[in-house]
Amino acid sequence: MSSTIVVALDTRDRLAAKSIVAELAPHNPWFKVGKALFVSKGTAIVEELMENGANIFLDLKFHDIPNTVAEAARAAADIGVRMLNVHCLGGRKMMETTINSMADLSSRPLVVGVTILTSMNQGDLDEVGVREPLQEEVLRLARLARDSGLDGVVCSPQETELIKSELGSDFLTVTPGIRPAWSATDDQSRITTPADAARMGTDYMVIGRPIIKHQRPLEAYESIQKEIQSAVQ
Ligand SMILES: O=C(O)c1cc(=O)[nH]c(=O)n1[C@@H]1O[C@H](COP(=O)(O)O)[C@@H](O)[C@H]1O
Question: EC annotation (predicted)?
Answer without folding.
Answer: 4.1.1.23
